[in-house]
Design a protein that fits this description.
It is built from 8 helices and 13 strands. The chain is α/β, with parallel strands linked by helices. A 3-stranded parallel beta sheet has the order 3-4-5, sandwiched between helices. Strands 6-9-10 form a 3-stranded antiparallel beta sheet, with helices on one face.
Length: 284
């Protein structure tokens, strides 16, 4: 197996692999990494992970990145369509749900092959905040977050379990509301504190979790951005929901039994995404 890093910034994609290779000895791991400015190096890849796009800046929402990053995604997706026709295409670029939908259209791939990373990260952030609040190990927490990867995300305490017991059994309604609010604002908080750039370690760990689930055919249920066609009563929209992930990408969409309030929140976010995506389509 081999990993190829591609970046238009001169020298960057060549320098990073050298640094990573030098880490192989102390890590006692063998791996092959190469770097290039030429996107043709992705030819016949099994997995393509797209992180290309302009980063968030302090005070900027993911949605403000929409038009600028849409052009980047459209160009790259066209190359993926030509060079890696059988690949699972994982999207990380923000605003993630819209870029995931655009990548699906631009590649013409089957919906199961285009996956958005966002909810994988959002669930990890929610789990971390719950862990700190209750002082319980992360391994005991199964966090659930649906909706868009942005201000429209919807952490679900009813479906968030600690050793199989719902979070609502451990915390008050007020404390849960505080933790869900912190989860929604976590990305912006990190961006504002850094002053330049955005979160790095947790997103990369979330990407690795997705890649592992595909590469090892783990059949794991993870929160991802997926294309819906009547699931949850929604159609023609890419949005975050739990899915079973394996070698074919999204192998099953898990439909949670949402209550009326949760359904309404998810539907509102989906309607907003569809409206925004129409704006993207009209600009090309």
């Amino acid at each position: 197996e081999e990993v190829a890093l591609i970046d238009v910034a001169k020298g960057l994609a060549q320098g990073k692999p050298l640094d990573m290779e030098d880490a192989s000895s102390p890590l006692k791991r063998f791996y092959k990494i190469k770097g290039s400015e030429d996107i043709k190096e992705i030819k016949d890849s099994d997995l393509v992970i797209n992180t290309a796009g302009l980063p968030r800046k302090p005070g900027m929402t993911r949605e403000e990145l929409r038009d600028k990053n849409a052009g980047i995604i459209k160009e790259i997706a066209g190359q993926v369509k030509k060079l890696a026709t059988d690949a699972i295409f994982i999207i990380v670029t923000n605003p993630l749900d819209l870029m995931c939908r655009l990548a699906l259209d631009a590649t013409g791939f089957k919906p199961n092959k285009v996956i958005g990373m966002g909810p994988t990260l959002d669930s990890a952030r929610f789990a971390n905040l719950v862990s700190k609040e209750l002082n319980v190990p992360h391994a005991d927490i199964e966090a659930c977050v649906i909706g868009s990867h942005g201000e429209g995300m919807l952490p679900l305490p009813r479906f968030t379990k600690i050793k199989g017991v719902a979070l609502e059994e451990f915390l008050s309604k007020e404390k849960i509301q505080e933790l869900t609010r912190k989860t929604v604002l976590r990305g912006a908080e990190i961006v504002n504190l850094l002053g330049s750039g955005s979160a790095y370690f947790a997103p990369s760990a979330a990407i690795a979790e997705l890649v592992r689930a595909v590469a090892k055919d783990e059949k794991r249920i993870l929160g991802v951005c997926a294309y819906l066609n009547k699931e949850y009563g929604l159609k023609d929209v890419s949005i975050g929901i739990p899915c079973r992930i394996g070698k074919e990408g999204i192998e099953q969409i898990i439909e949670l039994e949402l209550n009326q309030e949760e359904k309404a929140a998810l539907s509102k976010t989906a309607s907003s995404l569809k409206e925004q995506y129409q704006g993207i389509k009209n600009s090309f």
